[in-house]
Amino acid sequence: MYATELVEALADDLGVTPAEVVVGNGSVAVLAHVLQTVVEPGDEVVYPWRSFEAYPIAVAVAGGTSVQVPLQTGAGLGRLDLPALAAAVTERTRVVMVCTPNNPTGPVVHRDELDAFLAAIPSDVLVVLDEAYLEFVRDPEAPDGLAVYARHPNVVLLRTFSKAYGLAGLRVGYAVARPRLAAGVRAVSTPFGVSHVAQRAALASLGARDELLARVEHLVADRTRLVTGLRDQGWEIPETQANFVWFDLGERTVQRAEEARAAGAVVRPFAGEGLRVSVGEPEATDLFLRVSATWR
Ligand SMILES: Cc1ncc(COP(=O)(O)O)c(C=O)c1O
Q1: Strands (E), 172-217
Q2: Where exactly does CATH 3.90.1150.10 map onto the chain?
Q3: 27 alpha carbon to ligand 1 midpoint, in Å?
């Protein structure tokens, strides 16, 4: 019912027990199940904004109240404001989301700021570390999620096969949580929820780590080329550790997305805010750099 073979393989891979791993139809489903497990109507869920667009939906469906905390601006453009997230916690708060790297802006939180943040969070408030883009992270100051989880019983990790593994269409993600919470999450999960095909694909991917790492390494190299190219053009873009870069284009966002599309580069507009540009084939990086040069 609960993808036992995959759960056991993941537990083995991560160095935790199978009782601490829950899988679901993508990490977005697992997040919804985590929230359903702990959020009562009217409870608050604190999260950074802008961040992953499923957060407000999952909170609303769980009956919770969203408390959105703005990202940093200026020198910390696009970074989570961890002191502000901690300050937003009240007696009604059940969960705080920490998206690292943050979608759609790209920066990671750093070990020291996360330690200070966790020290400020009451032990009965869950902290969900959403590590969907973990495999792309190269910043030596980024935290080791499993080590953080080991030290803090109120931390839950969310991970996915959708990004670096390239299996988004098959829908497999998982949470790592203490056994009592994991049992609660399993209890609200759809039985037989992860298809057999998705389980086999995830298991095969776990067994092909070298290919995965090689593919991710190529992508990270092209990310560096894209970021360097953009900075050389004079753009101020956040310090991305994900497989995308963020352009703070405000009111010009939709028009720029349309211009990029017309030139052959599909990018993701967030109307009135900015563009998220994913790192794709090297040819796409070259093409996008030509487009962005015309915008300066
Ligand atoms: C930060 C973050 N978390 C989770 C997800 C969900 O991924 P999935 O449900 O495919 O595992 C995404 C996908 O865009 C994401 O950006």
Answers
A1: 173-176
A2: 209-295
A3: 6
CATH 3.40.640.10 is the classification of domain 4-206:
yes
Query: How far is C-alpha 275 from the chain's CA centre?
Result: 17
Per-residue pLDDT tens, the chain, 296 aa: give them.
Answer: 889 999 999 999 999 999 999 999 999 999 999 999 999 999 999 999 999 999 999 999 999 999 999 999 999 999 999 999 999 999 999 999 999 999 999 999 999 999 999 999 999 999 999 999 999 999 999 999 999 999 999 999 999 999 999 999 999 999 999 999 999 999 999 888 999 999 999 999 999 989 999 999 999 999 999 999 999 999 999 999 999 999 999 999 999 999 999 999 999 999 999 999 999 899 999 999 999 999 98
Please check whether residue 56 is in contact with residue 66, taking contact to mean a CB–CB distance below 8 angstroms. yes
Outline which parts of the chain fall under CATH 3.40.640.10.
Answer: 4-206
Rounded to an integer, what distance in angstroms lies between the CA atom of residue 293 and that of residue 232?
Answer: 10
Tell me which of 33, 47, 103 to substitute to probe ligand 1's pocket, judged by most ligand atoms within 8 Å of the beta carbon: 103
Closest ligand 1 atom to 160 CA: 11
**pTM score, whole prediction:** 0.97
Enter the tokens of residue 24: 């679901």
Residue among 53, 97, 162 to mutate when testing ligand 1 (max atoms within 8 A of CB): 162
CATH 3.90.1150.10 matches 209-295: yes
Ligand 1 centre to CA of 26 (Å) is 7
Q: Which atom of ligand 1 is nearest to the CA of 162?
A: 10
Helix (H/G/I), strand (E/B), else coil: 131: coil
In this structure, what DSSP letter does residue 191 have? T
